[in-house]
Amino acid sequence: MNKGEYWNPVLETLPQEKLRQLQLKKFQEIVTWAYDHSKFYHQLYADAGLEPGDIKTFDDIRKVPKMEKSMMRDVQGPGKDNFPYGDILCVPLEQVTDYRQTSGTTGQPVYQADTWQDWEYGTEAYCYALYAQGYRASDRIFLPFGYNIFIAFWAYHYAGEKLGCEVIPGGVLNTEARILKMQELRATAMGATPTYVLGMAETARKMGLNPPTDLCIRKITVAGEPGGSIPATRKRMEDAWGAKVYDQVGSTEIGHWGWECRQQAGLHVNEALYLIEIEDVNTGECIDRPGKRGKMVVTTFNRLAQPCIRFDVKDLIEWNPEPCACGRTFRLLLGGIKGRADDITKVKGVLLSPTAIEEVVRDIPQLSNEYLVVVTKKGDIDDITLKVELLPKFQKDEASVRSVLTDQLRVKTNLGYNIEFHPYESLPRSQAKSRRFQDQRPKLH
């Protein structure tokens, strides 16, 4: 394959054995840095009886204690050193140039500090993704999101600039104005959540526009939700826009660790900049071969202000047994992120992942893009309701759609549902991350 397909040809085609050597070296360096510069990490490792010099082999990596979001929250905030970042910070406050925070969807937000070098590292990581998806200097990128304290698509903006693309910020515009600006300037690419990509297409049609023919968007990068790796959701987006849709994954604390290339064979893990481990959810054992799903543990190699070392993300992933036809040696994840370990919930004694419901709903063309799942408890029995919308031209098909939904949900999730059909456009819409799964059962204490 032409080397022009790779943002960093040397690292993206490095043999796996050499990648492992590079990862071990970088892991040793970041553990030493954190041990020497962060009170949080020094105490964490001292309590485990570990010193950086103990990490001599790849297997030794698993001796290093994991950390998670709740631990970061505990050391941050008012009354803590290095406000607001706490003892996890590894540099003087004067070296912090960028502030971000998590969305707080799973609790109190985590405050993220970056030095200028850290932000450049994050931008570089995103460049791997965009270049692999075919972005080039000839592209004109439209960014339909509001610039604020959340990471959102900030790195997408700066990576686009680094690739030489023309970047158009559309933050303060409403959806209709964004669509008109995209049309006026003939934007060729954009980035957004899957929810907003579908919502924009719906709005464009209401404006009398057909996105595949009236707009020039040919590449879309999605993030923030699992929909980009769900075939039915991807097909809806690609059909709505007449464009290729690529998935990209990351988070505020970690950065941009995975992405699809033009082959769309799964998520590449950027193994030059990150170490991804998969652990058995129940036993904690390392899963290093394809065929078994587990939770993801991530180490960010070059983020120095506030490192993430063996960070328990709780996303569920699985190694792909096949290499990618693109020629990259970075390993693939099969089917992207399968959900979150803390999202998997028992309903009527059955383990349920919300992404399985999305796959069923989005595969039925008579239904709109929106749906809502509500789990309640009636006495001692769980009750699960799925709320959906029929598209206007299929209003007479309710009985047949109900039958297909019932059958497919039973096959894919092993559960029966109360299926409610609601008027078109009556369910909540979102421009950011969707909240389509609501567990309203009383919490056990």
Uncertain runs: none
Report how far apart the termini are: 57 Å
Q: How many domains, in number, for the residues?
A: 2
Overall structural class, as computed from helix and strand content, comes to alpha/beta
Average pLDDT works out at 92
**Spatial sequence of strands, sheet with the most strands:** 4-3-5-6-7-8-9-13
The residue fraction in helices comes out at 25-40%
> What profile does the largest beta sheet have?
8 strands, mixed
- Envelope shape: globular
The number of distinct β-strands equals: 19
Enumerate how many helices there are, as a single number: 12
Q: What's the CATH topology name of the largest domain?
A: Rossmann fold
In short:
The chain is of the alpha/beta class.
What does this 3D model show about the protein?
This protein is an alpha/beta fold. The protein folds into two domains: 337 residues, ANL, N-terminal domain (Rossmann fold, 3-Layer(aba) Sandwich), CATH 3.40.50.12780; 95 residues, ANL, C-terminal domain (GMP Synthetase, Chain A, domain 3), CATH 3.30.300. The chain is built from twelve helices and 19 strands. The strands form five sheets. The protein has an eight-stranded mixed beta sheet. A four-stranded mixed beta sheet has the order 18-17-16-19. Strand 3, helix 6 and strand 4 form a beta-alpha-beta unit. Helix 5 packs across helix 6, helix 8 runs parallel beside helix 10 and helix 10 crosses helix 11. The longest helix is centred in the first third of the chain and has 22 residues. The chain is globular. The protein starts with 8 loop residues before the first helix and ends in a 6-residue tail after the last strand. The model has no long low-confidence stretch (mean pLDDT 92).
